[in-house]
Design goal:
six-stranded parallel beta sheet; 40% helix
């Protein structure tokens, strides 16, 4: 069961919509949002340096946009992988993107830290298909469009 979710997306409208869909999926979720990979990494670095801070909650899931300025989703994953926080090793990361580029999907599939690819817009059905299945250890297609 997931309790803590992080959304990373530079588009504030997409961030808002995704957050509302997550709340509809499960109103008890604790959701943190970031508008850049840099700000999310700062949060994780703080967690690494000060592991007992109550404001630093370890996410069960990260939903990550691919196409963002300054640092795209793939660059974020490279930096995220360098973190030494053992608490983050069980966090599942999903690319949540409007990109339909086969290149992006294949690249996401080849990323060790990427648990799956979900096409925008996020919906409750996509969450049910992806999250429920992944957290109950059933095999599922990598790409979720519904």
């Amino acid at each position: 069961m997931i309790k803590n979710v992080i959304l990373i997306d530079d588009n504030k409208i997409d961030l808002f919509v995704s957050q509302k869909i997550l709340e509809k999926y499960n109103s008890k979720l604790h959701i943190k949002t970031f508008t850049s990979g840099f700000s999310a990494l700062s949060y994780f670095k703080l967690m690494e340096l000060k592991p007992h801070l109550e404001v630093c909650v370890v996410p069960d899931v990260i939903f990550l946009d691919i196409n963002m300025p300054q640092m795209n989703g793939f660059e974020f994953l490279k930096e995220f992988e360098r973190l030494n926080a053992s608490k983050l090793k069980k966090t599942k990361t999903y690319m949540l993107s409007s990109s339909t580029s086969a290149k992006d999907i294949i690249k996401a599939k080849n990323e060790a830290l990427c648990s799956g690819y979900i096409s925008k817009p996020l919906t409750v059905d996509k969450l049910k298909k992806r999250i429920t299945s992944d957290f109950h250890l059933r095999k599922l297609d990598f790409f979720c469009t519904l």
